[in-house]
Structure formats: structure tokens, C-alpha cells
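Repro case for the chain-ordering regression, as requested:
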Amino acid sequence: MRLAAIATAAGAFSGLFGVGGGTIIVPLLVLWLGYGHREATGTSLAAIAVIGAVAAAAHAAYGNVDLGKGLLVAAPAIAGVLAGTALQQRIPERAVAAAFVVLLLASAAVLVL
Amino acid sequence: MDALDVAGLLALGFAAGTAGGLLGVGGGVLFVPALVVFAGMSQLGAVATSLVAVVLVAVVGTMRQREYGNVRLRDGLVIGLLAPVGVLAGVVLANAVSERVLELSFAAVQVGFAWQLAKEAGLR
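-- result from build under test --
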């Protein structure tokens, strides 16, 4: 039931802003389901893979996806995600939480400005 | 795109992927402006195209985190498969309420989460 609520909230914010699923999924997994921060981020990525694939297919059907440019920005991002996950295993869980708090506040500030 | 634009795409792409791996987000928040500014795309084209990168980051990140034992795959798939219901609700809401109100509401939700996470982690 709580998973369904998290899914609906994450989907709603994605539908509203085009981005933003992760900033909803991670805090709700931690606060509602008692996930550790590493588990919450890993599980969030699994959900985003599914949500993103559905959204990408829908956008591709309308001809809005430029695959070449997508892959150009994805290539360094794949290197980045390998670095980011490796780094995450080597820092304390509290540091992951603190970084996420900074991300949330920065994201909120961008929305307000 | 000139060399500077390609460099910009590579740098922001790497930053978005790192944030994705570290924080469990897709990175769209960085991919979209990168594609608008450095690849000259429209907002809609950039959002659609960014999803290619978001999916690849999420798949690679999930595989890596699984090796570390940090993925509850069933929960993640349930959230992913049920999210489209929320997307529909979000699209309806986006057409019913002013954009400024939505932006401020989302910002308030994020500040609320930040405060609760900080409290939970004993950061205050």
C-alpha cells in the first residue's frame, strides 16, 4: 500500500515537472519504510529505470527523442554513475543523507527562483 | 555544436551520473538544461532526449547497487510499474493549477523532506 502511494507521488511529480521522481522516492523509502540511505538510493534507481523506459518510449512515439544527443550525454553519465555508486559505498551513511538534504534544498531553491 | 558545447555536455553528463549513483536520482535535473544550453534543443526535446540518459544511468546504477546488496528489486519494480498512474494524475493537476503554485508546492514538499531526513539522520 505504501509502495503504491510512493509510486503515485513519484509519478505525479514526474508528470508535473518532467523530472523529479528520485527526490520523492528516496525520502519516502527512508521515512515511511525505514530503508537505509544506500538501499533507498539503489531501489530508487530500479524504479527510475522502469519509469524512465516507459516515458522514453512514449516520447519516442511522438518523435521527440534525439538518440545521438541522448547517447552523447549518457556516455559520461555512465562513467559518473559508476564513480558515484563506488563513492557511496566508501562514505558513511550519514554523509549520504547529508548530501541528499543538500540536493533537496538546492532543488527547492531552483523551483522558487 | 562546437568543441566547447561537447565539453559542456560531457562535464554535465558526468556530474549528473555521479549524482545519480550517489543519491539515487535519474539526473534529469542536469541533463535537461545541458541539452538545452549545449545542444540547442527545445525544452520538450531535451526532456524527451534526457530520458535516454536517465534510463541508462538507472540501469547501470541498479546493476552496480545490486552487487553491493543495496537494491530491493521487488519494491523498486512495484514503484516503477505503478508510477504511470501518478503521472496521469500529475498531468491532470498541471492543467488545473497555475505553474507557480505547483513550483512552490513542490519546493515546500522538498524542504519538508529535507528537514525530516536531517532529523532522522541526527544531522541537526
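Ordering looks correct now. Chain A has one domain: 2-112.
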